[in-house]
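Box 3.1 A note on notation
Throughout this textbook, protein chains are presented in two layers. The first layer is the amino acid sequence; the second is a token string describing backbone geometry. Keep the layers aligned when reading.
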Amino acid sequence: MSEYWLRKAEPFDVRRIYEFSKEYLLESLQGKKFELDENTALETFNIAVQVPDMYETYIAESDKGLLGVMILLFSSSFFKGEECDVEFFYVAQNARGTGVSRALVEKCVEIKKDRGLNIIYAGCHSSFDDSGKNDKMFKNLFMKYGFEVTGTNLHLA
């Protein structure tokens, strides 16, 4: 694996993020359940890249292309202050174990501190057909950075 760098996504990255998200769908059971709508996906990724009060999107890349994408959604609930959800977190298979995942989680911790967030929610529900192995690795990685398990995510599809 060559050197990689992490940066905030720019508008010219939207199409690349869309194409990269197809890798996630190929690996995820969600890709077998739902059809990807290109226009809706591009619009969503465009908002995630260009509305900084609401979203921040980070990409990890090398000279060979995208290695990871993380989309954060900022919001408020009934608590005073701002919170954040990790809306999308995917690292390509060939980039796992290279530090890309750690760099993205470290960016979460940095953003929490810089923005004074109350909490960051990071649900580990990859929907991969791997008997939960990826979800366990995701959970363990985030826990190394101080995240705590507080419940279970449920979905109705």
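The chain has one domain: 4-144. Residues 67 and 96 are 9 Å apart (CA to CA).
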